[in-house]
Design goal:
heterodimer, A: 525 residues, alpha/beta, five-stranded mixed beta sheet, 14% strand, B: 296 residues, mainly alpha, 15 helices
């Protein structure tokens, strides 16, 4: 055979192999039938004392904790960490800590390669979780998980993410609720406006943000007056992400930072970017940007807006926060008196606020499919413990019996000062609720004024904002899996430009109609 | 006036092109050096000073807090340095040795040379992807070992190709002379060929060393036990922590972390060793940069 023919045949063979491998990778699993609707939230379990002993055999497992990756990488001696030692002894475990650095990238590779640590931690947006769960790359909880681990079940129910993480009737991730056991469960994650009382008084608006709310017009007036008086360099400055969230509530539309961009209202699904409130919000944002009220660097996203506000350079700072976040803002304030920090929800001029918000959770645990039942039970026992009142307080305060002890009425009595630096380095930090202790008022280092400000906003939002719904039916259709429209970035782009905002947005919707309309049709079929 | 003086006098005059070149090169110099200088300034600045004067030639409010945060890792930082230096030194030496030897072999004539060379080059066109790569490392039992970072990077086909062409440019007569003197292939390689390739070896050593020094993605995936954390990963985790602390999200909050300052301090801590080593290689580097320009 001639040399050329041999080369051609080799090339064709190679091409065939590549095509075959591509075809093999492209095979989709069969679409699973829709899961049953989520049950009613679990009742709060009675605060019974934890069982003593009962763990005869030592269980070994691996856990990746992103939250304390820094401490891990810096060589923190976690094996001598007080909470680590307490939990290991209480549950008779010998866990191995694996670096959680890299978060999603590492999990993607580990899960696919079958080397996932027994417990991993991730933001766990439902679409991503579903794609992994359907391939059997995560382990679901046992069917009787609600009965066996009632405190954990309660946390899952108040997080608002149970339905999103339930696939084919099985729960594949344990979300960390922000509040709900010691403090009232917030319905949605807090997104509101931080501003300064001293500036409001200086410009003759002492009642601005009173009772934890302000209207759009009042906010504009406040910003313009502060700008005219030259009191700060920036007026309204934050990441576009938070601006859209906070303003979205004023226009009663959900944020579009998290796909899918579909929401169920009164039994019918709507496409969020096409809602009238969304269009009105975009037009308003652009108007404010052109008027110099919204900071010009919003488009680049390169500014440390948190730092700018704390340094006293910003008049109003839209932000999403917990009580702990507020505490940290207060501790970082250098440009003004921290006592002048105020918080409020931005409403429409008629006082209305609505839309949807991200649920009461922050990140979740997932589990490796190779985890055996005994190990899995022990792991869930530990998580369940951190969902009890004692466990919630221990997580943020220190070892029970050393830093505090629980009294008969269910409140803690503190035996010594909380060493926040040590507590926050524990690999078990934020297992369970992430901010329940800080919001509860039990924290001896807490600021009642901050909690009150936070709660005022939370109550207003809870009464009006609906938690985002992540129905399985939304995410399982083929059209939904093909949906990919970066509405969030487009809003930022339009906001920071001179184009006709409404026309540009309508064109954007028209250009992407082939992507979102089929999803909408499927949902409303 | 002597010729020399006349020439010197002529050279001392600046014409318009000289002025334009000087201005452009000065601007280029400033464009390169100013961001670096800014990083140094910000790393020694407080948050308030940075916010009020994001760009300044001198720290408005001097502080060492940013470096204290990084260096407070203590044993963690030292360990990360040790691991990284080990990987860099061992990896660079082994890689250069392997590539130089392979390139010399491929520059000789032997049966099947074209096929073998094609197989080398073929690996540049396709890759199995990240997950197959990870699975291979896992199956070889290399996870959480230095070898998982060093071994896969030992052979750089690009370096081999450049080195090979360089070897081929050396007159065969030099090797003939060595053969006549009784040298075998190994002796010819070590005593004749390698000494003639010093600039090239220095250049590739620097590139390879920088590659090992900067690696963090593979260590992140494969060195998951804390006892082998590399410097880039250690500092990346500090920067990530500083970012989250700026948003009030993590345990660093009580340290009043200034994320931008910490980031800049991280940058300097990372590049300092390379900057200390580079002057010693600079004379070879300049020559070595032209290595790739020789005909293949």
């Amino acid at each position: 055979m001639k040399k050329n023919q041999i080369t051609r045949i080799l090339a064709m063979l190679l091409t065939l192999v590549m095509v075959l491998s591509l075809a093999a990778c492209g095979a989709q699993p069969a679409v699973k039938p829709a899961a049953e609707p989520a049950a009613e939230p679990a009742a709060k379990p009675a605060a019974e004392p934890a069982e003593e002993g009962g763990y005869a055999d030592t269980i070994e497992f691996s856990m990746a904790n992103y939250y304390t990756a820094y401490n891990f990488s810096s060589g923190y001696d976690y094996e001598n960490d007080p909470m680590w030692k307490f939990i290991c002894e209480k549950f008779n475990i010998a866990p191995e800590l694996v670096s959680g650095e890299g978060w999603r990238d590492a999990i993607n590779v580990w899960a696919t390669a079958g080397t996932l640590p027994n417990i991993v931690w991730d933001d766990a947006d439902p679409s991503w979780l579903r794609s992994f769960a359907e391939q059997g790359l995560f382990k679901p909880l046992p069917d009787d998980w609600k009965e066996r681990w009632p405190d954990l079940a309660y946390m899952v129910s108040v997080s608002g993410m149970e339905e999103a993480y339930t696939i084919d009737g099985k729960l594949y991730a344990v979300p960390h609720a922000q509040t709900g056991r010691l403090a009232p469960a917030q319905v949605v994650r807090q997104s509101a406006l931080l501003f300064r009382k001293d500036l409001a008084e200086a410009v003759g608006m002492p009642d601005f943000g009173k009772d934890g709310q302000c209207t759009l017009s009042e906010l504009r007036e406040y910003c313009e007056k502060v700008g005219e008086a030259g009191l700060t360099d920036k007026l309204l400055a934050s990441d576009s992400f938070w601006i859209q969230r906070v303003f979205g509530q004023a226009f009663s539309v959900p944020g579009v930072d998290w796909a899918p961009h579909f929401v169920e209202i009164d039994g019918e699904f709507a496409y969020i970017p096409a809602m009238q409130g969304e269009k009105d919000m975009i037009v308003t944002l652009q108007e404010w940007y052109k008027a110099g009220i919204i900071d010009e660097e919003v488009y680049t996203g390169a500014i440390d807006y948190n730092g700018e506000f704390c340094a006293g350079n910003t008049a109003a700072y839209p932000y999403a926060f917990s009580v702990s976040d507020l505490k940290s803002v207060v501790s970082n304030i250098t440009g003004f008196d921290p006592a002048d920090l105020r918080v409020c929800v931005v409403t429409a001029d008629d006082g209305s606020v609505g839309g949807h918000g991200v649920s009461n959770y922050w990140t979740a645990f997932m589990f490796a499919p190779e985890t055996d039942e005994a190990t899995f039970t022990r792991i869930l026992d530990i998580i369940n413990y951190f969902c009890t009142p004692e466990g919630i307080i221990a997580n943020k305060a220190g070892v029970p019996g050393v830093t505090f002890e629980m009294q008969e009425d269910g409140t803690p009595k503190f035996l010594k000062e909380i060493d926040t630096a040590v507590v926050s380095k524990s690999p078990f930090y934020c297992t369970g609720y992430t901010d329940d202790f800080s919001t509860s008022g039990f924290d001896p280092n807490g600021d009642p004024a901050l909690i009150a400000m936070y709660q005022a906003c939370a109550n207003l939002l809870a009464a009006n904002v609906i938690p985002a719904s992540y129905k399985y039916s939304v995410l399982s259709t083929e059209a939904a899996q093909n949906y990919s429209v970066d509405a969030y970035s487009k809003i930022t782009e339009v906001m920071c430009s001179d184009v006709d905002a409404l026309a540009t947005w309508e064109q954007f919707l028209a250009d992407n109609e082939t992507l979102w309309q089929p999803v909408l049709d499927d949902l409303n079929a | 006036m002597s010729n020399t003086k006349r020439i010197r006098k002529k050279r001392a005059k600046w014409d318009a092109m000289d002025v334009i070149s000087f201005v452009l090169l000065t601007l280029l110099f400033l464009a390169i050096i100013l961001p670096f200088w800014s990083a140094i300034v910000v790393s020694f600045e407080t948050n308030r000073a940075y916010v009020e004067h994001p760009v300044s030639f001198w720290p408005q409010e001097f502080t060492l807090d940013n470096y204290k945060i990084i260096l407070s890792g203590g044993s963690g930082l030292i360990a990360a340095y040790k691991h990284t230096i080990y990987i860099t030194v061992v990896g660079t030496v082994c890689s250069i040795a392997v590539c130089a030897a392979a390139a010399y072999t491929l520059s000789r004539h032997f049966p099947g040379k074209r096929v073998i060379f094609f197989l080398f080059v073929f690996t540049m066109y396709f890759g199995g992807g990240l997950v197959p790569y990870y699975l291979l490392i896992k199956k070889l039992g290399l996870l959480n070992k230095y070898a998982c970072i060093i071994l896969p990077s030992l052979v750089s086909v690009w370096n081999i190709i450049i080195m090979k062409s360089n070897y081929e440019s050396i007159p065969y007569e030099m090797q003939e002379a060595a053969i006549i003197d009784g040298a075998n292939d190994l002796q010819i390689f070590a005593r004749v060929m390698l000494p003639l390739q010093k600039p090239m070896l220095a250049t590739f050593s620097l590139f390879t060393a920088v590659g090992f020094w900067n690696s963090w993605y593979m260590p992140m995936l494969m060195l998951t036990k804390g006892d082998k954390t590399v410097l880039q990963l250690y500092l990346k985790s500090i920067m990530g922590e500083a970012d989250m602390a700026a948003k009030g999200l993590t345990s660093m909050v009580q340290d009043h972390v200034f994320s931008q300052g910490v980031k800049m301090a991280c940058v300097l801590v990372i590049i300092l060793p390379i900057m200390l080593v580079y002057p010693f290689l600079q004379k070879h580097f300049a020559k070595g940069m032209l290595v790739g320009a020789v005909k293949m």
